[in-house]
Amino acid sequence: MKKTLTMILAMLMVGSTVACSSGGGTKDNNSGSTSNQNGSNAPAKKVELKVFLGGLDRFRDQFDKYFAQFAEKEKKEKNIIVTINTEYPGSENATQILKTRLATGDVPDIFALHAVNDVPDYYKAGYLEDMTNQPFSGKLIDGIRKLVTIDNKVVAVPLESLAWGFLYNKKIFNDLGLKPPTTLTEMKAVVQKLNDNKITPFMLSYKESWIPQLFLPLAVGGLGNSTQKGFVDRMNKDQGSFAELKDMFGIIDLVNSNGTGRVFEVGNDDGAADFAAGKAAMWVQGPWDADSLLKANSSFDFGVAPLPLSDNPASTLINVSVSTSLAMASSGKNKEVSTDLLNFILDDQASNVLYQGLKFNPVSKAHTFKPYPWVEDASAYVNKGQSYQDPQIPAAVKDESGKALQAYFSKKMTADDVIKDLDKTWKNANAVANKK
Question: What is the pLDDT along the chain (436 residues), one digit of tens a residue?
């Protein structure tokens, strides 16, 4: 879970005096002093940063390489030797680990959090540093900036800007003359055509509860912005019920009864490998798995489309969100270097390579790389107004929905049981929030 990345990149030069015309760092082996690009011979300052990257283990290589670039830059420009301790807990328990750390004082200098779901609570608890006046803040695309802003303060660097619904295998769809459906009835016709051609319609990977949980934001967002407007507000006031969204079980049942086997043995990594290998035509999953999909099959051609929830096409919408973001702890001990690192995350040149390598969407006005095809697929819906901003749902409700939908698949809970369970969990979350 924990990996120490030590990046001491001072140039060791042999001899009593070494001249460097470029002004880069040099070290005198006799005195132990190190000069920076300004020519100072002051001893190098040493700083150790703790960076908590929950749910980002699949990007370990990209981040570790980028942090090494940062350490080299910090050494050259500020004569600071930076050691970065990175930690990559999985999505299943990252949130709980982080909350425990913050509550007990074992505070990471920089940590990953979900912009929509986590920022309000963490900000209210006083954990987030105000970064509004930092250079990266002014570079953010306007629509992205508002998703990491609270009380007119920018409190995080956005990493994953998302437009998602479900993934589909373009080759399979093209070979059979299929198009992404806009209603539940159309989706049933697509499923029938796939079954007739002996192609499994859906990839099922419910080993990790966060995957079936994905139905929740899609249902709350799609129905809550069409036929059941105001649902989130009613739930926050203890005046609503998931019975209003009972239509969501139509698509859930269709997916569950037309999917791959070994459901509780397959997690995200295996699911990505199987989907990229063509073992199913669709997957209720997001483009955050693009890197895993293309590592499994570099020629895999997939698209993104909104998930139909009913026979009302007005509910078939793309979810637009900023998910994983990086924040600086307000009680961190190394704020100068932490600030430098967060600004480097959106460096005008280096971040283009980083974000493209991560297969993330552009978030900065300085990002000039061409969006990937699946991004353009989703953007086509967004540009036509067929989208909504990711709904703000209590974290406890999202966690519980994943477990409840696992139980629903295995017939340990009925639809009514799930509705009652989620209603109760949301009310409990309201009670906790009102006590703070």
Answer: 344 333 333 333 333 332 323 333 333 333 344 555 555 567 889 999 999 999 898 899 999 999 999 999 999 999 999 999 999 998 878 888 999 999 899 999 999 998 888 898 899 999 999 999 999 999 998 888 988 999 999 999 999 888 999 999 999 999 999 999 999 999 999 999 999 999 999 999 999 999 999 999 999 999 999 999 999 999 999 999 999 999 999 999 999 999 999 999 999 999 999 999 999 999 999 999 999 999 999 999 999 999 999 999 999 999 998 889 999 999 999 999 999 999 999 999 999 999 998 888 889 999 998 888 998 999 899 889 999 989 999 989 999 999 999 999 999 999 999 999 999 999 999 998 887 6
Query: Can you say whether the dihedral through the CA atoms of 296, 298, 301, 302 is positive or negative?
Result: positive
Query: Which residues belong to CATH 3.40.190.10 in the chain?
Result: 2-160+323-360, 162-321+380-435
| Lookup: tokens for 293 | 């999909």
Return d(Cα 187, Cα 255) in angstroms, integer: 10
Q: Kindly report the CA angle at 62 between 58 and 67, in degrees rounded to 5? A: 125
CATH 3.40.190.10 correct for 2-160+323-360: yes
Q: How far apart are the first and last CA of the chain?
A: 32
Measured CA distances, 184 to 106, 191, 254, 255, 351 (Å): 48, 10, 9, 11, 40
Query: 267 burial class (0-12, 13-18, 19+ CB within 10 angstroms)?
Result: middle
For Cα atoms 246, 248, 254, give the angle at the middle one, nearest 5 degrees: 125
162-321+380-435 carries CATH number 3.30.460.10: no
pTM over cut 0.85 = no
The 10 Å Cβ neighbour count of residue 208 is 19
